[in-house]
Amino acid sequence: MSLENKVAIITGAARGIGYAVAKRFVMDGAKVVIADVDDEAGQSAVDDLKKIGEVTYVHCNVAERLDVRNLVAETLNAYGDVDVLVNNAGIVVGADFLELEEDDFDRVLSINLKGTFLCSQAVARHMVEKVQNGGEPGTIINMSSINAVLAIPNQIPYCVSKGGMSQLTKTTALALAPHGIRVNAIGPGSIMTDMLASVNNDPAARNRILSRTPMERVGEPSEIAGVAAFLASPDASYVTGQTIYADGGRLPLNYTVAVPDAD
Ligand code: NAP
User: Fold this and answer.
1) pLDDT at position 40, please?
2) Could you tell me if the CB of 106 is within 6 A of ligand 1?
3) By its UniProt entry, which NCBIfam families does this protein fall under (predicted)?
4) What pLDDT sits at residue 195?
């Protein structure tokens, strides 16, 4: 198993893409720490995944420095190491440009972007120290989005946060490369999670998404987990500073495609 005995922290892993990454990592042999703000969902995720491997839950709001410090301390306490960090926690707040509240702009940026910085810095301090003591370098994976590149007019802070994630991924990768620590990002297209729930029962929204998706379907969280498993594994040993877009062909598409009939 490619992650045998590796220790991985995954933020926002109580549900959705983060949960799928946690499941895949546990199946690949990792000891996984699920960090989230939804304690009930987090505990239930642990209860499910305990059946297949080693997993624990830590409450952590990634936008809070002290929570992040506690997350790393709890992980070291439980497993003695951190080899992989997946910065997955993220939120959306939709509002028209003229109506968007300052607090909402700040909240999205502080979770999606500053939270990624805080977690990366705290974990990287441990990883660098480990390398300096002769240990193996770890790796960091950021959950970006196609909205790092594509804009939506009523998703301003979200798109800005994911645009910033591109540069945060590159700058962190360059800063940590001399220590052998790799930093990459995944840019999912539309993936079937609670974040996309509104689309399920809205034919117009489904039409909008699928007309921009050459593979004619939304993605599954497990398909993003597969990319994370690759980036965390030794198979990606010379890959750093990259964003891999798993989007069913959306970014290369100019114009639109025909939408298949609903099942
Ligand atoms: P999700 O289903 O909403 O799950 C996100 C999890 O993160 C939830 O458990 C959420 O808790 C938690 N969370 C929220 N704020 C947090 C904080 N401050 N600290 C720690 N945890 C926090 O989202 P998802 O669809 O799986 O998305 C996961 C990541 O993929 C996000 O970064 C998102 O931007 C990215 N992404 C998703 C899609 C998609 O189509 N789904 C596409 C591109 C990129 P609460 O539920 O209590 O808020």
Assistant:
1) 98
2) no
3) PRK07231.1
4) 79
Q: Which residues contact 10 (CB under 8 A, 6 or more apart)?
A: 18, 21, 22, 25, 32, 33, 34, 35, 86, 88
Q: Which residues of the chain have pLDDT under 50?
A: none
* Whether residue 17 has its Cβ less than 6 Å from ligand 1: yes
Provide the b/e sequence for 185-224 (b: ≥16 CB within 10 Å).
Answer: bbbbbbbbbebbeebeeeeeebeebbebbeeeebbebebb
Q: Are 191 and 218 in contact (CB under 8 A)?
A: yes
Ligand 1 close to Cβ of residue 196 (< 6 A): yes
- Please give the pLDDT value at position 100: 98
- How much is the pLDDT for 129? 98
Closest C-alpha to ligand 1, atom 18: 61
Q: In Å, how far are 159, 164, 192, 208, 225 from 217, measured between CA atoms?
A: 22, 28, 10, 12, 17
CA–centroid distance, residue 178 to ligand 1 (Å): 31
Give me the pLDDT at residue 1, please: 65
- Other CB atoms within a 10 A radius of the CB of residue 76 amount to 13
Cβ of residue 38 lying under 6 Å from some atom of ligand 1: yes
For residue 188, which atom of ligand 1 is closest to its CA?
43
Residue from 9, 10, 11, 15 whose mutation best tests the ligand 1 pocket (most atoms within 8 A of CB): 15
Which pTM was predicted?
Answer: 0.98
Q: Which residues are catalytic?
A: 158
